[in-house]
Amino acid sequence: MRWLAWLITLALGAALLAMAASGRPGNVAILLPPYRIDVSLNLAVLVLLLSFALLYAAVRALSLLLGLPRAAAQFRSRRRVQVAAAALHESLLHHLGGRFRRAERAAARAAELEAFRPGALLTAAQAAQAVQAYERRDAYLEALPPAARETGTLLQAQWQIEARDAQAAQRALRGLSGGVQRRTQTLRLALSAARALHDHAEVLRLAGALRKHHGLHPAAAQAMIHGAALGLIRQADHDAEALRAIWKSFDPALRHDPQIAAAAARGLAQAGEAAQARALLVEALRVPQAEPAALMPALRGMLGGIDAAFVAQAEAWMDRWPQEAQASFLAARACVELELWGKAQQYLQRALEQCQPDERRLRGQIHAALGRLQERIEREDQAMRHWRLAALDLANDDGGAAGGA
To answer: Bigger pLDDT: 25 or 221?
Structure first.
């Protein structure tokens, strides 16, 4: 049907042209003395149109002829780009498929073209690393253009971490520019190096930054931050000044963490700062989400030098956590410290009633405290009974939930 449409179009065009030409009877005279050439106007117009078409075709043909070398060069350039792109694609497929030698060879072919050189050399370096061809790997990295050197440094740092050379990786990462150091991948590598080197302060900083920018799962980041905070407290080695500086550097969420607060308080107590350690735990117990079972066992060992105000505070905690045996036990120990024997016995009995069946260790400790209390008030028979019960509970303790000593 298409040829029929063309045929009708040509016929219509010819008819219209004939009609237009028939209405123009004029002549054109060309004088070339001693000659005179007379032609019709229609023929003159036709000759002019044909001459223009022939001239245009000649100029166009000459232009194409003169542009043949450039066209051939452009064709060769496009062909090289196509071959290099195909080689780079093949290299990536081989690398992802575990065919590392083929990936390296294909990447080497792609690297012959300047535009593909950075990606091809990086792929070849990764393939060489996978087959432990370290000399070839380093050669590929050395051949990288300046714009891709920092990307190569990131790869090198990753390989150094895998090779357990975290110090070299950390040095390499610190030599990167500021923009590259803020990238998520750089922060992750720096975090891995810091964890391998037990650089807890750096782990704390990097994990917090990654959590803020969603570069790390919140649960994983929280676990790393928690572990780094405990590591910093352990590294302080009962140095009161260092512990105070570390505690001030923590954000409120860390200060309210019961494990971290208990660890910092124990460090301060062992450094001879019992009052400050006790104040730290009291502050942690004031937050709405405080966990008495985690904080009060540590506080029981730091009651030296307390006054009646602390007993009142302990009794307030008993009202706040009416079913918590740890609160009653703490209040009893505070009363023992101030020699309030009657209140102490009352609170210890209440703590025994509040103990859960699985809190054998805590119950044993309460019986032991009652035994000591009965000995102090010279009730030997009652003391022996509590000592026996304490021995039974502590001997049968299976390491379940309970507070510390």
So the answer is: 221
Amino acid at 212: K
- Residue 115 tokens read as 């535009």
Per-position b or e across 167-201, b if 16+ CB within 10 A of its CB: eebbebbeebeeeeeeeeebbebbbbbbbeeebbe
Distances in Å between the Cα of 305 and the Cα atoms of 275, 276, 278, 337 are 8, 12, 10, 8
The chain-wide mean pLDDT, for the chain, equals 87
For tokens 């029981």, the residue is: 300
The one-letter amino acid at 91: S
Q: Annotate the chain with three-state secondary structure.
A: CHHHHHHHHHHHHHHHHHHHHHCCCCEEEEEECCEEEEEEHHHHHHHHHHHHHHHHHHHHHHHHHHCHHHHHHHHHHHHHHHHHHHHHHHHHHHHHCCCHHHHHHHHHHHCCCHHHHHHHHHHHHHHHHHCCCHHHHHHHHHCCCHHHHHHHHHHHHHHHHHCCCHHHHHHHHHCCCHHHHCCHHHHHHHHHHHHHCCCHHHHHHHHHHHHHCCCCCHHHHHHHHHHHHHHHHHHCCCCHHHHHHHHHHCCHHHHCCHHHHHHHHHHHHHCCCHHHHHHHHHHHHCCCCCCHHHHHHHHHCCCCCCCHHHHHHHHHHHHHCCCCHHHHHHHHHHHHHCCCHHHHHHHHHHHHHHCCCCCHHHHHHHHHHHHHHHHHCCCHHHHHHHHHHHHHHHHCCCCCCCCCC
Instruction: Evaluate whether 207 touches 228 at the Cβ level (below 8 Å).
Output: yes
When mean pLDDT is compared over 22-36, 69-83, 108-122, the highest value belongs to 108-122
What local confidence, expressed as pLDDT, does residue 30 receive? 76
Is 199:227 a contact under the CB 8 Å cutoff?
no
pLDDT above 90: residue 72: no
pLDDT digits (tens, 9 = 90+) for 289-319: 888 888 999 999 888 888 899 999 999 999 9
